[in-house]
């Protein structure tokens, strides 16, 4: 089934006035369905249309399902293959039992912190969009960072996601948010499954922030050795989903998968 808005008499969104970039949210999509969409601008002189773009929803189709963490943050979810993933990065500031995860803004303190979280550039506005950054000690804490019934994905679960979304060479492009509202150009992305990966960047082991706009990172729960743990990454100019070992003091976002 194919859907295409040929003109303003068909289904469309209205996303503000003036010049510049804009973000449009399309709801009510059906799973496993191909859609066509194009931008438009209209004034008293008439309506002009941009280039037609196409995408296909995954088996979750956005799903309409949500999960809520211990802080009351609610996340959309998406079904991909046999897995159910959060469609957003984690924002929680407490472990599942209610204990606070320490917030560490100071760079020197970050370099020696136990389990901790931060916001990119210490800005709440970044956390609102991209989620929070956690070190691996917080991810690995027995009090559990994930909502009840969910967990931080293992290395093998990231590999399963990769295999279900086109394999090593293509899965990154199929998981990234489309366009350049957040990603630096070029962004070869189709977001076929509603995973909507964002370029949230990282905090390094010395407490500095890097790569917002160009890189998406996530932790896995799988330890590599006493120094490193496995994680996943996507770049702005590639369609690869990397699985790589990273130093544990780094600050990465977290996506959770259902038990």
Q: What is this entry, summarized?
A:
The protein is an alpha+beta fold and 259 residues long. It is built from five helices and 17 strands.
Task: Walk me through this protein's architecture.
The protein is an alpha+beta fold and 259 residues long. The chain folds into two domains: 1-57, Immunoglobulin-like; 66-258, no CATH class. Helix content is 12%, strand content 28%. It is built from five helices and 17 strands. It has helices at residues 107-111, 124-130, 136-139, 155-164, 171-175; strands spanning 2-4, 34-37, 40-43, 46-49, 53-56, 66-68, 74-80, 83-86, 117-118, 133-134, 150-151, 200-203, 209-212, 215-223, 228-235, 242-247, 257-258. It has a three-stranded mixed beta sheet, with no helix packed on it. The longest helix has 10 residues, at 155-164. It is globular, with a radius of gyration of 19 Å. The chain starts with a strand and ends with a strand.
Number of structurally distinct domains: 2
**Percent of residues in β-strands:** 25-35%
- The poorly predicted ranges are 1-6, 59-63
Residues in helix, %? 10-25%
Mean pLDDT metric: 89
> Measured on Cα atoms, how large is the radius of gyration?
19 Å
Kindly report how far apart the N and C termini lie.
Answer: 32 Å
Oligomer: single chain
The structural class is alpha+beta
Shape: globular
